[in-house]
Amino acid sequence: DPNMERIDIEKIHDKFREFPSGEGSLKELFEAGPSSAFFLVKFWVDLNMPTSDPKASDIFYGHDNKYESKEKLHIKVSTKACSFGKGVVEKLQSVSPVAVDGRLIYDVEKSPLCEYMVSFLYKLKDLPDTKLMNNVLENFTVLQHVTDMETSETLLCVACVFEVSETNQSQ
Fold first, then answer.
1. What b/e string do you get for 34-70 counting C-beta neighbours within 10 Å, with b at 16 or more?
2. Is the dihedral of CA 80, 155, 14, 19 positive or negative?
3. pLDDT reported for residue 157
4. How far apart (Å, rounded) are the C-alpha atoms in residues 158 and 160?
5. In this structure, are strands 38-45 and 154-164 parallel, antiparallel, or unpaired?
6. Given this model, what pLDDT does residue 19 score?
7. What are phi and psi of 125, to 5 degrees?
8. Among 45, 22, 30, which residue's Cα sits nearest to residue 160?
9. I want to staple 146 with a disulfide (CB 3.0 to 4.6 A). Which of 82, 109, 152, 156 is the partner?
């Protein structure tokens, strides 16, 4: 896509170096390819959230992912949070497709965040200013790696970086 900016892997690979699962670093994954499956996404963080107890039962912290393919695959979705380039927590999910209007949809709905992530959000929100929050986020990244469970082929790899929105509005 001509509208997408190309980023040299050398500029970001150090933010995704080591993972407890033994899986390769972002650079190793990228070199194994295919390079067309790799994306860097910057998220603007909106910290307008309740200030109540993070363990309150009336609050849900989670995310949704939806993938589509032309072939029927069984996929593994690995989501890793990294601090200073090292994986600190990993969530593994296996997903099978559902046929919807002739399409194969892989839907991960309402996948809860782990306690580490919820705690991280509250600690980040408690920092006194946006500059300090962004200093913390400079060393925090997430890598989501989607593979074919049968062949271990990389289907999609999304490297996520974060910055707090100055206006505290999602963008």
1. eeebbebeeeebeeeeeeeebeeeeeeeeeebebeee
2. positive
3. 94
4. 6
5. parallel
6. 66
7. -65, -30
8. 45
9. 156
Interior angle at CA 40, CA 110 and CA 23, nearest 5: 75
What tokens were used for 117? 């992530």
> For 42, how many CA atoms within 13 A lie in the half-sphere containing its CB?
12
Ranges of H-type helices in 66-129: 115-125
- What distances in angstroms separate CA 156 from CA 5, 51, 117, 164, 166, one per listed residue? 17, 35, 23, 26, 30
Q: Identify the residue whose tokens are 């790799």.
A: 38
Query: What end-to-end distance do the CA atoms of the chain give, in Å?
Result: 22
Instruction: Decide: 104 and 56 in contact? Cβ < 8 Å.
Output: no
Which residues are CB-neighbours of 40 under 8 A, at least 6 positions away?
A: 7, 12, 158, 159, 160, 161
How high is the mean pLDDT of the chain? 86
Q: What is the token pair recorded at 57?
A: 């039962």
Measured over the CA atoms of residue 122, residue 21, residue 109 and residue 156, the dihedral's sign is positive
The dihedral of CA 142, 148, 152, 153: what is its sign? negative
Residue 34's pLDDT band (boundaries 50, 70, 90)?
Answer: very high
